[in-house]
């Protein structure tokens, strides 16, 4: 879960850079970005029951950097700013509101907003801004090097054999990438580190719960796909 917790911490940084008022309100309420954990680890399939919307999101996530789901999660939160700011500045109220991914979300517009966030804040830049470094061998950091050049099945097999399998077989401790010092003030740097530490503490308590969540979401998605006759015709 450690890489995911780092991604959630970086999500907070995106919100801060895009909407400081919203970020300060959520921070003042003491709400951690755990509210979107299921969105990130299940690509929203745990929270949506509309197969068209789920497949639209999967199209985006499969064709983009693995970090795209975090940009999408940030876009969802930013799109709900007025509703959030109208709520009492209370931890349970705001957390409960943000946890519920609206069933009627405009997926296409949010996908566009997520792509715009990616264009505005590159994967490397947003890590620098948050001072939270993902692993050097993370698919997020190696996406452009390993996956974008792939144009054929042969390229894919070569990439897996020459680059991916050695990473999986390497037993050495993984190291974070080197970041460029951001222009952020010390308060924001400390806030990012504090958020990550709190998420890590919560994760130790709830690790089993989130394992069940991930497995359950996967089973549910497979069941949805199998029950859709339109899709089964093409299998």
TrEMBL record:
TM helices/strands, residue ranges:
60-78, 207-226
| Gene3D superfamilies on file | Ypt/Rab-GAP domain of gyp1p, domain 3
Keyword Membrane, does the record have it?
Answer: yes
**Residues of the Rab-GAP TBC domain:** 1-65
Task: Give one GO molecular function term.
Answer: GTPase activator activity
An example Pfam family from this entry, by short name, is RabGAP-TBC
Its keywords, alphabetically, are: GTPase activation, Membrane, Transmembrane, Transmembrane helix
What Gene Ontology terms for biological process does this UniProt record contain?
Answer: endoplasmic reticulum to Golgi vesicle-mediated transport
InterPro entries xrefs: Rab-GAP-TBC_dom, Rab-GAP_TBC_sf, TBC20/Gyp8-like
Q: Would you name any one GO CC term?
A: endoplasmic reticulum membrane
Q: Which PANTHER family match?
A: RE60063P, TBC1 DOMAIN FAMILY MEMBER 20/GTPASE
> What name is this protein filed under?
Rab-GAP TBC domain-containing protein
Q: Which organism is it from?
A: Mucor circinelloides f. circinelloides (strain 1006PhL)
């Amino acid at each position: 879960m450690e890489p995911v917790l780092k991604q959630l911490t970086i999500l907070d940084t995106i919100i801060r850079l895009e909407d400081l008022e919203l970020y300060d309100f959520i921070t003042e309420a003491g709400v951690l970005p755990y509210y979107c954990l299921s969105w990130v680890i299940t690509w929203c399939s745990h929270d949506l029951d509309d197969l068209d919307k789920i497949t639209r999101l999967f199209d985006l996530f499969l064709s983009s950097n693995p970090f795209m789901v975090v940009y999408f999660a940030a876009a969802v939160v930013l799109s709900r700013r007025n509703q959030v700011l109208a709520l009492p500045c209370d931890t349970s109220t705001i957390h409960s509101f943000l946890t519920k991914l609206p069933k009627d979300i405009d997926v296409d517009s949010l996908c566009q907003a997520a792509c715009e966030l990616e264009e505005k804040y590159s994967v490397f830049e947003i890590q620098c801004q948050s001072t939270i470094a993902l692993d050097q061998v993370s698919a997020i950091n190696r996406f452009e090097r390993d996956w974008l050049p792939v144009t054929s099945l042969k390229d894919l097999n070569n990439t897996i054999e020459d680059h991916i399998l050695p990473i999986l077989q390497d037993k050495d401790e993984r190291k974070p990438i080197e970041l460029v010092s951001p222009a952020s003030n010390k308060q924001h740097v400390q806030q990012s580190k504090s958020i990550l530490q709190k998420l890590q503490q919560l994760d130790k308590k709830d690790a089993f719960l989130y394992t069940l969540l991930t497995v359950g979401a996967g089973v549910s998605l497979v069941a949805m796909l199998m029950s859709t006759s339109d899709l089964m015709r093409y299998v």
